[in-house]
Structure to design on (371 residues):
């Protein structure tokens, strides 16, 4: 085999994307080895996180590609560095994004550490993203398939990780990935994409969360203070949510659906209002903490694009203030359901610049919005 391009450790998850990433790297002349990373210990219920099925599929793919497959268990690290923080955020009334934490704290550090121990120069995954190496450092770029772009989840990577990273699917459309995998005879070419959070799997979110956090029931109120019912716990709800509120007909309120527009954590009240675009759901800015910049801090006031959730179309924005651990952002158009705990990620053209964790939505004055 032509090994002129060096050795790469590919994170094989059992899905089609990582399988084709490995196949493409083999075709490009790399020496390829796979690593299956187990990040969660399943309970006794079948199909919980599907790690066994994923491992079997990764093993089958590795056999077809004729590459070694290593297996490592990072469940203890995942529990302490991702899941514990996930629970802390929900207990505080925020809505965290564990995929961002996992990539930053577990997946890429572990891949890189494994690669070095095996004498490999590179690591690779099936993420839809691209990396460009320049004389000034490595840049993270959005994928060609905008609908699959995953740079939102990768903004926390550092220069060391990006310098070693390969993203073979950055220029591919998902439809072409499946077609090529089928042509290569890969058994997972039509396997359903994984969605949601691995450790929750197909479980109902409320049932899962109640196993780890104690729910505190409280009142469901309108912004004016009218009590409409009882909620089972603030942790089960997020801003903009419509389903599962349990609000029937409300006298004098009409038939428009109700949405979560705020959480009064001090009073343990869930604030709801009618209308998908209620004013309390729209914000012209936000404050965010723990900023991470991939290749230099952007200038205050410079025109940028940003998104506050995965797959949201890019929005025109400007950073109006940056401190050591906090920044403020203004949007050209109001944003719906700015959610504390989620991340805002910034872009200039195709380049992902970095991001920060949303602390609060802000009003025109720049102060945090009321409940």
């Amino acid at each position: 085999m032509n090994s002129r391009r060096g050795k790469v450790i590919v994170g094989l998850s059992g899905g089609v994307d990582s399988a084709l990433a490995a196949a493409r790297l083999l075709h490009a002349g790399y020496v390829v080895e796979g690593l299956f990373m187990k990040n969660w210990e399943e309970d006794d219920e079948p199909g919980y996180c599907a790690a066994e099925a994923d491992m079997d599929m990764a093993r089958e793919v590795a056999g077809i590609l004729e590459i070694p497959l290593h297996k490592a268990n990072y469940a203890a690290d995942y529990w302490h560095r991702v899941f514990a923080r996930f629970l802390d955020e929900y207990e505080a009334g925020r809505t965290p994004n564990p995929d961002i934490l996992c990539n930053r704290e577990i997946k890429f550090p572990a891949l890189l550490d494994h690669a070095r121990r095996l004498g490999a120069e590179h690591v690779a995954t099936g993420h839809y993203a691209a990396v460009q190496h320049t004389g000034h450092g490595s840049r993270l770029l959005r994928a060609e398939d905008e609908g699959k772009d995953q740079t939102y989840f990768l903004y926390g990577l550092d220069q060391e990780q990006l310098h070693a990273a390969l993203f073979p699917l950055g220029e591919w459309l998902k439809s072409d990935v499946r077609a090529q995998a089928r042509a290569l005879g890969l058994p997972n070419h039509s396997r359903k994409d994984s969605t949601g959070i691995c450790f929750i799997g197909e479980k109902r979110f409320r049932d899962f969360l109640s196993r780890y956090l104690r729910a505190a029931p409280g009142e469901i109120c309108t912004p004016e203070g009218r009590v409409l019912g009882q909620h089972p716990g603030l942790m089960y709800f997020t801003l903009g949510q419509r389903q599962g509120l349990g609000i029937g007909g409300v006298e004098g309120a009409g038939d428009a659906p109700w949405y979560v527009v705020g959480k009064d954590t001090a009073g343990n009240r869930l604030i709801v209002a009618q209308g998908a675009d209620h004013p309390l759901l729209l914000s012209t800015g936000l404050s965010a903490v723990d900023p991470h910049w991939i290749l230099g801090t952007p200038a205050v006031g410079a025109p940028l694009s940003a998104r506050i959730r995965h797959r949201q179309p890019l929005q025109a924005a400007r950073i109006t203030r940056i401190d050591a651990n906090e920044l403020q952002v203004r949007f050209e158009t109001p944003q719906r359901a700015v959610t504390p705990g989620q991340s805002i990620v910034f872009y200039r053209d195709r380049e992902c610049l970095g991001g920060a964790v949303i602390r609060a939505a802000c009003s025109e004055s720049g102060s945090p919005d009321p409940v």
Remarks:
- The helical segments are 16-27, 51-65, 75-91, 98-117, 151-154, 159-164, 174-183, 205-209.
- Residues 98-117 form the longest helix (20 residues).
- The mean pLDDT is 91.
- The first strand starts at residue 7 and ends at 11.
